[in-house]
Amino acid sequence: MRHVDDGPDARPGDSRRFEEIGVAGWKAAYDGRFARMPQPLQVLWTLEGDLPARRFYERHGFATAGARRLRALGVRRRRSASGAPAYCDRMADVSVRPARPEDAERVARVQLLTWRTAYGSFLPEEALAVPEEQAAALWLRAVELPPSPRHRLLVALDGTDLVGFAASGPAEDDDLDPATTAEITTLLVEPRWGRRGHGSRLVAATVDHWRQDDVATAVSWVWERDTASRAFLVSAGWGPDGAARGLDTGPRVERQLRLHTDLGAGA
After folding, report:
1. How deeply is 99 buried, as exposed, middle or buried, from its count of CB atoms within 10 A (0-12, 13-18, 19+)?
2. Residue 142 — φ and ψ, nearest 5°?
3. What single DSSP character describes residue 56?
4. Are 82 and 170 contained in the same domain?
5. Rg (CA), the chain
6. β-bridge partners, 92
7. Which domain holds residue 69?
8. Residue 5 included in any domain
């Protein structure tokens, strides 16, 4: 079987992470490229970060086989001996794991860089001017002394670079049951590492932990003006639940919207 990402449709700069999914037969999904593949298929590889595709397969009776590839196949550009452009394969390790004490400084650096880039247009400068040492101390405490076993900090790695993180715990809103509802309190990927699947892998790993905890529903508060984060979560199966709140940032009150997802619906 030919992988759907290699061959004439592969593009320079592509990066892929694969998850093996067992299928009993073939069902067309996104474009005519798939229709050219031999039928029937016994195994299909799909991008782990492509949550809409995974939900599509689940709705049509497909099931995860359990095997995963922990390496991502990419393509990088180089020059041939004649000087003409050429392309060669490279292998880049991408992963998600629980944070360690030595990660605290790097987590703080990602947090502050991402805040300034994503929120600088609507949050006041003083709200973003948190000393890196102070932020690192807070994350170190979160790793070493979490409030409960259900409070977790996961980090995304691209090779040896820490490029993003997700913090989560039981929901704290008064109208939610913390025994059955969890919350992503922070989900950030450094902008220069965006669009490589790191955010999706962080969400997927967090959901795996929630299911082990028998969590039924998850929520996350996002800034109303942070359209990128809202669009990402909506594409992963989250949606507004009607709750909103205003936070006084000094010059103005900025609204946040609460998104939620049903973990029983394949989020």
Report:
1. buried
2. -65, -35
3. H
4. no
5. 20
6. 72
7. 15-92
8. no
**Is the CB of residue 34 less than 8 Å from the CB of residue 28?**
yes
Residues 216-227 have a mean pLDDT of 96
Judged by DSSP in three states, 83 sits in coil
Q: How many angstroms separate the CA atoms of 111 and 11, rounded?
A: 31
Residue type, 64: T
Whether this prediction's pTM lies above 0.70 is answered by no
Strand order in the sheet with 217-223: 43-47, 15-22, 63-79, 85-98, 152-158, 161-170, 181-189, 217-223, 253-262, 239-248
How do residues 89-115 score in pLDDT, each as one tens digit? Answer: 344 588 999 999 999 999 999 999 999
Task: Tell me the DSSP string of 138-198.
Answer: HHHHHHHS-SSTT-EEEEEEETTEEEEEEEEEE---TTS-TTTEEEEEEEEE-GGG-SSSH
Position 28, amino acid: A
Q: How far apart are CA 256 and CA 185, in angstroms?
A: 13
% of the chain beyond a pLDDT of 70 = 64
With beta carbons less than 8 A apart as the criterion, state whether 264 and 180 touch.
Answer: no
As a three-state string, the secondary structure of 8-38 is CCCCCCCEEEEEEEECCCCCCCCCHHHHCCC
Domain boundary among 92, 107, 141: 92
Q: Which of 162, 141, 166 is nearest to 152 (CA)?
A: 166
Whether residue 10 lies inside any domain: the answer is no
Residue with tokens 């979490």: 146
The reply to whether 4 falls in a domain is: no
Closest-CA residue to 210 (of 157, 171, 237, 163): 171
